[in-house]
Amino acid sequence: MNVVQHIRKAAVIGSGVMGSGIAAHLANIGIPSILLDIVPEHAQNRNELSESALQKLFKQKPAPLSSPKNAALIAAGNLEDDLDKLAEADWIIEVVVERLDVKKAVFEKVDQHRKKGSIVSSNTSGISVEAMKEGRSEDFKKHFLGTHFFNPPRYLKLLEIIPTSETASEVLEYMKMFGEDVLGKGVVLAKDTPNFIANRIGTYGLLKTMHVMTEMNLSPGEVDSMTGPLIGRPKSATFRTLDVVGLDTFIHVAKNVYDQVDGEEKAVFDIPDVLLNMRDKGWIGAKAGQGFFKKDGKTILELDPNSMEYIERKKMKAASIEMAKQQKGAAKWKTLAYANDQAGQFIWKMLAPTLLYSAELTGEIADDIVSIDRAMKWGFGWNEGPFEIWDKIGVADSIKKMELEGRSVPDWVKEMDGSFYKDGHYYDPLTQSYKPIEKNAKVIDLKQLKEDGKIIKQNSGANLIDLGDGVALLEFTSPNNAIGMDIVQMINTAVDEVEKNYKGLVIGNQGKNFCVGANLAMILMAAQDDGIWEIDMVVKGFQQAMMKIKYSAKPVVAAPFAMTLGGGTEVCLPAAHIQASMESYMGLVEVGVGLIPGGGGNKELYIRHLEQLPAGVTVDLQAVANKVFETIAMAKVSTSAAEARDHNFLYKADGISVNQDHLLHDAKQAVLHLHENGYTAPIRKKVPVTGETGYATLLLGAQSMHASGFISDYDLTIAKKLAWVIAGGNVPFGTEVDEQYLLDLEREAFLQLVAQPNTQQRMQHMLVKGKPLRN
Ligand code: NAD
Fold first, then answer.
1. Which residues form the 3-hydroxyacyl-CoA dehydrogenase C-terminal domain (predicted)?
2. pLDDT of 617
3. How far apart are CA 141 and CA 109, in angstroms?
């Protein structure tokens, strides 16, 4: 059978919200596509829809493109003139309006024009995939399946894959691999049932939440204050999520289930009057400017569902919430689920039915509970899936309470041995046994390694962990992974240990962010305490540790992801190789807190710019200094790894992992690769600087910004120090200086700034308010 083994080119049909987002995501990973849409009646430009969709990609937030340059990989076309181009595509994905007749008509055309062996899929949110293939050719049917992305496709991890009864197993296997390894998604296999997995349970949970809100006479604000981070869900909680999704879309999705189920379930999916009422008024959420919430200047108002008026937003206050905030894991869940106050009652009433519903649907919508838990985590951003939560609140206790209330608990839940998960196994109702959770060789689980006793060294801010195969990993564990002396010490220990006993070192972790910078609180405290001498020691130690990373005899590979700011970026720059997540937000942002980088970041970024220049060209040192100055002075932060490359935080040869779950594995492979190729420490080189004339030029730029009012007096003071450091101080243009000289300049400037009241105010503001102060 002719199965496409590689998707090199794609066609995306439908250039709406999802189609354009999918084309953008394909471009981000280097796959060119043609984006097709209908020709609007009387259109002068026959590609009007797809071309305007492409234009919108540049304006959307969060950005669908990881670099504006990627748009060049998407060609616009239409469904009348460009059908022959479908024959060039290895994968054709349909993303048109959610109507079976429209989708079937599209597939009829696709069948006529596609090449044999190309994969065809639908991005439907819940229409039967089986029904879509009716009337199609044999080859089409073998290569056809559902691929359900979540919005926005670049950022949301879940990809539900839905095979039909005729999808060839090779095609299914290939798409699972492609989804995970190439698209970087979390793939879950779903059955062809209404709304598949995540949207089925997600909409049910949301509608139940609404019913309980009405029953308990609570407000959307009160509900959101309980259904967000408190229970491990995104900040947008319930109703703000609904506003972002749009009530029209939500109603459509819920109605799809309503039409296909019966009895009690149907009653839940019956759209509440409030929602219909809101839709009729056009209050459908963010895109209409109002929904459950509405902004009034800076204040956020909430809708009172009884009076249909916007009032001041309320928050739920309860003893159980205060208590839970102090707790973690199972204890926290137990407090929240079983408390007798209003919050406890609400959480139980919305949670219990969702848990039961998930259990009832196991087998029907997915083969196993693991898929359901993953779908909810990857598609809805829950920290834990329903069965993981259920284990935490305690299965036996919860069943008692559920049955006392007259809820019916599926037999298999009562029959299993007290928990859904046990030592790396999950319960399978079909065989009534615990089955091992399949291990994915590309997913390194640090928590598991620690449980397995793989810690080599440990202190209050970091661990050194044995990853196996002769590779060690340095993990930051301080709050926000902020760098303090403990981490600095562990860097030294790690490099010493690795030089003796390992092939190389990965610096990485699995927290929320790689690292948000140095421990500001510690620096501020020392600064206010006249502890400049102490700060000098810390900065010196940090600089030395960075040099140790750079000149380690064994390769060090940094693995940044998400926020990698200030000191976080400084830790990466001296590494032998950086393996970055596609979602890496890197930047030297120290000026925001009145400082300049103090761990060698200025020097390393400057060197990276020099090293990136093509061999043989005359180096324009001033241009290099200008660019580095601008990047640091404006505290530029990349919005992706691709952009980090544009800023030279990453070399072209540094790696990018599309799937963040594979990041540590990829970094480990990079260490092994360097080791096998006979890695040796880099040779110490002198660095040519622009010196006095360079300083004057940089200063001129800063002064004109100041004169035009773009930067404050104090910004100018910082800019002067930064210019001095980047220019390499008071030496003739082109002087070659050694790295230690540059580090000393940097440290001196850092210490002068940290002693300034304006800098201390900026640090204080950042610590208290979480955002920069421009003084
Ligand atoms: P959309 O309304 O933004 O885009 C639909 C596209 O279909 C438009 O470009 C439109 O021009 C095109 N279209 C309309 N009539 C057509 C026809 N007769 N033939 C061909 N194309 C036609 O919708 P969307 O939100 O991008 O949704 C597209 C698909 O993705 C739907 O199946 C939807 O269920 C699914 N989906 C949507 C989301 C979401 O959050 N929006 C998430 C996952 C899946």
1. 196-294
2. 83
3. 14
The answer to whether 507 and 473 have CB atoms below 8 angstroms apart is yes
Q: Which tens digit of pLDDT belongs to each residue from 542-554?
A: 999 999 999 999 9
pLDDT, one tens digit per residue, over 43-53 is: 999 999 999 99
From 18, 125, 203, the mutation candidate for ligand 1 (largest count of ligand atoms within 8 A of CB) is 18
- For 165, residues 6+ apart whose C-beta sits below 8 A from its C-beta are 130
CATH superfamily of 10-189: NAD(P)-binding Rossmann-like Domain (3.40.50.720)
pLDDT score, position 3:
57
pLDDT given at position 614: 87
d(CA 633, CA 448): 41
**Predicted pLDDT of residue 488:** 97
Structure tokens at 340: 């007798």
Helices (H) and strands (E) in the chain, counts: 32, 25
- The angle, 0 to 180 degrees and rounded to 10, between the axes of the packed helices 395-404 and 329-338 is 10
Nearest atom, ligand 1, residue 149 CA = 43
Contact yes or no for 292/240 (Cβ under 8 A)? yes
Interior CA angle at 743 toward 653 and 716, to 5°?
Answer: 95
- Token digits for 150? 């979540």
For the segment(s) 198-436, the CATH number from 1.10.1040.50, 1.10.10.60, 3.30.750.24, 3.40.50.2000 is 1.10.1040.50
Q: Is 238 in the pocket of ligand 1 (CB under 6 A)?
A: no
Tens of pLDDT, residues 258-267: 999 999 999 9
What's the CA gap between 20 and 156, in Å, rounded?
15
State the CB neighbour count (10 A cutoff) for residue 317: 12
Per-residue pLDDT of 274-332, as tens digits, reads 999 999 999 999 989 999 999 999 899 999 999 999 999 999 999 999 999 999 999 99
Cβ contact 646:476 at 8 Å = no
CB 16 less than 6 A from any atom of ligand 1: yes
Domain boundaries, the chain: 10-189, 198-436, 446-600+612-620+635-685, 688-769
Query: Mean pLDDT for the chain?
Result: 96
Q: With 90 as the cut, is the pLDDT of residue 735 above it? A: yes
Ligand 1 lined by 14 (C-beta under 6 Å): yes
Atom nearest to 151 CA in ligand 1: 40
The three-class DSSP label of residue 556 is strand
CA-to-CA separations, 647 to 27, 507, 631, 663, 697, in angstroms, rounded: 20, 21, 7, 21, 21
Residue type, 71: A
